Amino acid sequence: MFRRLLATTLARRAGEMPVVAVVGPRQSGKTTLVRELFPNHLYLSLERPDVRAEAAEDPVGFLAQAANGAILDEVQRAPELPSYIQGMVDEDDRPGRFILTGSQNLLLMEQVSQTLAGRVALLRLLPLSVSELCGRPPVDVERLDTVERPPPAIDRELWETVWSGLYPRIHDKGLVPTEWLGDYFRTYVERDLRTVLRVMDLDRFESFVGLVAARTGQEVNLNSLAADAGISQPTAKQWLTALRVGFVVTLLQPYHASYRKRLRRRPKLHFLDTGLACYLLGIRSADQLRRHPLRGALFESFVVAELTKGFEHTGRVPPLYHWRDATGHEVDVLIDLGERQVPVEVKAGRTVTADALASLRWWTGLEANPNTGGVLVHGGDTARMRSGFAVRPWFLG
Q: Do 32 and 99 belong together in one domain?
């Protein structure tokens, strides 16, 4: 059993709001988390055909049994229920009355936002972070640019972790990652996302997802992606949006503050689980990944996913961006903390070379840029301050 960082935020929001919805990809641990935190709530899984049929045929009677609190798992399977829940919580708005989970963000968010606005707290649970996997204290993502003391050693290897990914079941049950991820891709990506999009050409959709995996850590060029997949640009945009709201990928938008002219405006794409990306790319071992030409891009996506979890699992929208100008200067990630922006550079090598900090020096040296400091995340295990920048290990701290 893994201790999830989101548990603290979930318990707090359930003490404030009558409805809490936890969304995230299948097998990220949503059901385990909510059942552990709310053992006295009635548990009803809408995945079961008999339960789903009862909810559809008699929603009032179905919810009557849940009057004193219920967990409604995969609630997007019964799209009419949020409207009836609205009426119940308007009459009795006790905090934490309904806990909803869903793995189809596209459907659930539409249902919840339309019917339960102002009555629901929306939280997201992604796969494990390295800290959660290893039972370590969470990384403070707002203080990455300071190193007060070196972090303790970690009993994990970088490329094995990047290759296996961080879905809980793989590590809890000691499963072979390629076998489990293959089943996962077929059941979740093919079944759920195809259902949402009503994709008829499965082979072309599979090819599209593989092409997206090959572009992790790169700027999005929809025209190129559509041409390579043999589909129209609007279809490529629709399918990419589905992967995004299905928690498969995330897009880092270009940072909006113009410290320099001629900025590139394309978002940067990252897979949220590098194990799934490796599976789609045909990388069948950690040793193969070490020599793979995309290892640097996959490591960058791994770090972006860790930062994303650091914010999402504390109930915050990740303020993550990227920066690149027309001359090729770039910063891999910018964390916008409001009063300051923290640049993050990602290097897969274990050794911090003399020029590893060049991008951070360049960005902080831009005219009219008031920010100082930054973070270099590298493939080694050391953490220290160097030339005013924080050097952090691949597991962040």
A: yes
